[in-house]
Amino acid sequence: MSEPLYTLKCGKAGCFYPEYERKADLKDQTHYCPGCGHGITHKLMAEAIDELGIQDRVILVSPVGCSVFLYYYFDVGNVQVAHGRASAVATALKRARPEAIVISYQGDGDLAAIGSAEILHSANRGENITVLFVNNGIYGMTGGQMAPTTPVGAKTTTTPRGRNVWNDGYPLHISEVLSSLEGPSFIERVALGNPKQILQAKKAIRKALEAQIKGLGFSLVEVLSPCPTIWKMDPVEAQRYVREEMTRIYPLGAKRDRLAEAAPRPLPEAPPPLEEIPRLLKIDTRPSPPSARHLEGLEDRIKIAGFGGQGVLLLGQLIAEAGMDDGLEVSWLPSYGPEMRSGTSNCHVRLASKPVDSPLVTRPNILLAMNEPSLRKFLPDVADGGLVLYNGQHVPEDCHRPGVRVLAMPFAEMADSIGSAKAGNIVMLGALMALHPVLPDEKIDGALKRLVKTERWLELDRAAFACGKNAALELESCHA
Amino acid sequence: MMTVEAPPKVDKGRVAINREICKGCGLCVEACALHVLALSHEINRFGYHPAVYQGHGCNGCALCFYACPEPAALEVYKLEA
Questions:
Q1: CA A460 → CA A6, A392, A452, B79, distances in Å?
Q2: What does the alpha-carbon distance between residue A209 and residue A186 come to, in Å, rounded to a whole number?
Q3: Which residue, of A94, A260, A337, B12, is most buried by count of CB atoms within 10 Å of its CB?
């Protein structure tokens, strides 16, 4: 009689690497503790991937936590991300590659604590990703601190007298919270408390992946999982704790299942081809021409200050961009309050023939003060030999400084007379270019064309520039 | 009168455990309703008592496989029909 024939029914899933990229004697073994739920969850996920035939399409996002080394084990696309950001990265991966099956694998420290914002908004947007949320109610990797999911009364290193709801709040029911949102198509809580629960977990994971394959939107499986080492239990006792205690706190079952009725989400709009992007962003990709003029040794440190709404930041941006177009090294650093109007506002601009070391301007050689408080605040900082333009009829008595040229002109009123006081900043720019001609007019005009959006304002600004320049030249000739 | 010899009883399944990969957590032993698995008295190179199959009695239900956290530690084979 021939030997009975046995064939393999269950073994290592095909989407695991045959050998793991670990130290030589560990290449067949995971890094998890004996009895850890991650290994089981990995196996269930691997079987689902094999059964659905999606190995070539899967991108797996590894979190921070014990499962940080997912990419050692799964022969799929792998990205390891910053703590808590797995579902945000998964969002980007899925949008960039809609044909991929993106799985965000996260623990309860990663997902429910530091990543609570990311998961909430990914779910609310209904991103077509699948999240495996492994909940063991503790921070395992870092040695057993309380997690948002820790049971009430549980002793951890940070709750040595037991979790106290008045001090530490209540266990966070992620599946229920997310099920209150419209975005998710499938959410189920499962457990690894015995083989029956484990087989149910497998079904749920497969269903969640099917939801993504069908394009139905966000799916999540919360897996109640043992952590024998940190719980200080043997694996069998930890499994019992999952089955009897954790499932009491966290009821099992589907919290959301729209697999039957949900319609596929529309695919994200295809991104423009890479070569289109400069045009869309209106970026000139031609190399900037070297400066035609001799500006060796130029090192302007310009401080522009005034009220918000006076065009302080735009003025700085114009100077910096015109300088850039002229082949200079430039920087522009805005600094402003939260108000869009009437708060204080200033910016730092550097124009130099050599690379700029820091965008900060602490000792300006040029100060453009759009109002008196700004003049008073920054005049003491101006370097000797510096130039100050002040938006006013005359320089206040006590604002003269030996060694610094302080010049007052009513820039806003001049602008008002040609159309709008708002163009006072450009009148000031014209005056600066008359007194300190470091940038050619056509470069200023090029920057204006780029930064000023409407034709009407562009015309007004051109007039304002000419007005400021002429007025300052006149002033100079009177002095001469 | 002709007599027909009864076929020898053949197990429907078999378990193969890699003793060097097994971490001796005991969850397969716990999962097996037929009690055909046990933890060995010997220790493996990592110092764990690996699970061992007693050699007969397996029905191939594979519950031990799903209870086992190590992807490559335990395999279940089924008798060809």
A1: 88, 21, 10, 89
A2: 10
A3: A94
From A64, A32, A40, A67, select the one nearest A229 (Cα to Cα): A32
Give chain A's domain count: 2
Using an 8 Å CB-CB cutoff, list chain B residues near A12.
71-72, 75
Residue A95 lies in a domain: yes
d(CA B33, CA B59): 10
A and B: number of Cβ contacts within 8 A: 106
* CATH code, domain carrying A353: 3.40.920.10
The DSSP string of A170-186 is ----HHHHHHTSSS-SE
CB–CB contact B21 A28 (8 Å): yes
Q: Which of A6, A33, A234 sits opposite B14 (nearest CB)?
A: A6
**H-helix or E-strand spanning residue A168:** helix A165-168
Residues of A in contact with B30 (CB under 8 A): 236, 239
Whether A188 and A132 map to the same domain: the answer is: yes
Residues A334 and A417 in one domain: yes
Residue-range domains of chain B with CATH: 19-78 (3.30.70.3270)
B15–A contact, CB cutoff 8 A: no
DSSP calls for chain B: ----PPPPP--SEEEEE-TTT-----HHHHH-TT--EEE-SS--TTS---EEE-SS------HHHHH---TTTEEEEEE--
Cα distance between residue A224 and residue A244, in whole Å: 11
A56 shares its domain with A169: yes
User: Chain A neighbours among B 22-61 (CB < 8 Å)?
Assistant: 23-27, 30-31, 45, 48, 60
- Across the interface, of B11, B20, B80, the residue whose CB is closest to A5 is B80
| β-strands B51-53, B37-39 pairing | antiparallel
**Residue whose pair of structure tokens reads 């090192």 in the numeric block:** A299
Last residue of a domain, one of A234, A257, A280: A257
Q: Which range of residues forms the domain containing residue A160?
A: 24-257
How close A10 gets to chain B, by Cα (Å)?
5
Segment 198-257 of chain A within 8 Å of chain B by CB: 198-199, 202, 228, 234-236, 239
Give per-10-residue mean pLDDT for chain A (480 aa).
85 96 88 96 98 98 96 97 98 95 98 98 98 97 96 97 97 98 97 98 98 97 97 97 98 97 88 88 73 74 92 96 93 82 85 94 97 94 97 94 95 94 96 95 95 94 97 85
Whether A377 is covered by a domain: the verdict is yes
| CATH code of A225's domain | 3.40.50.970
- Chain B contacts of A198, Cβ < 8 Å? 66-67
Q: Which two tokens stand for residue A224?
A: 């109640």
Examine residue A282 and state whether it is found in any structural domain, yes or no. no
In terms of Cα–Cα distance, which of A389, A425, A424, A392 is closest to A407?
Answer: A389
